[in-house]
């Protein structure tokens, strides 16, 4: 049994990566199809209506993340992963048949419930299967799947929307589940529901662990850090080109800078996990947030020539992976029976930052002060993330300690 379970653990990283890539595809697809939706003559969709659809989808993601963590801790990781992928894939397919903004918005909310559950469950599984000294690296590599899915969405949108219509992207976003779901069910190892703890109340309600036994202060600190991290990610991805236009750069350069920012994100993810495994999650998170603040503040200066691209690239390296190191740190800080709940809470509450980021940056744009004040605000947010990590209570060197895997059970024979 143990040998079989160990063999199946080799499937965890690629299958969770594929699930997160589908999440990246689905969460970015709205931005890709939005220009087409605004032109639908029978929909009458306005810019404010489109913003409402985007926000309600993110609310669904938040609710899904908060709910999926406790379910995964109580029912097992594999079962939670299978059902979240099934749920968002089915609803994503239904989005292709939406007849108006109201129906489309409702479906995006329902899809968000499933989407929100994917990340905390995947993070818990890869952290537990990463092996000694590699959990940080496993977490950051997992998150490259999100960017791969996002890039694929943009490429397919460019190639297929004009000849086939926006609906084709939602069909293609759902089809991989036909292959992925059976593989998840048959090849993922599972974790049995947590064994009874000394305090049985903790086992019945994993979320209680986040506020008991000295964890309340750390939980609040992690939630603040996650809020700040996702505020940066979504605020910059939404408004960077507009801010750079206000700084006097040409449109083509501003769009290229957004691409460079995301290239930096992937590079940062590949580097950050290795660094965190070497120097500890706490130290790495503080360094990453602080350095992100430095480069964001640097962008408030109009840099000449290629220097601006170097600055944007380095900002991307540190901004995006700061948030992922927070997830890795959360995975190490809490005991196994509450790990997915802790990750779900950090991801779910962080989504409030994802909603706030574009709103804050947009208000600065509307006020005509996005440059340079947008970068000052983003730098302050990054510093707040660093301060939040400093406030996390040390728990027996939990920032450097390897996590202990949950008790595994072999997947069904297949």
Automatic annotation (TrEMBL):
Any one cellular-component term (Gene Ontology): plasma membrane
Organism from which the protein derives: Pseudonocardia endophytica
Membrane topology: Multi-pass membrane protein
Residues of the Major facilitator superfamily (MFS) profile domain: 12-397
GO molecular function, one term: carboxylic acid transmembrane transporter activity
Gene3D superfamilies the UniProt entry points to: MFS general substrate transporter like domains
Main localization (coarse): membrane
Source superkingdom: Bacteria
The name this protein goes by in its record: Putative MFS family arabinose efflux permease
PROSITE patterns recorded: MFS, SUGAR_TRANSPORT_1
Chain ranges passing through the membrane: 12-37, 43-68, 80-100, 106-127, 139-161, 167-189, 210-234, 254-272, 284-301, 307-330, 342-367, 373-392
Subcellular localization: Cell membrane
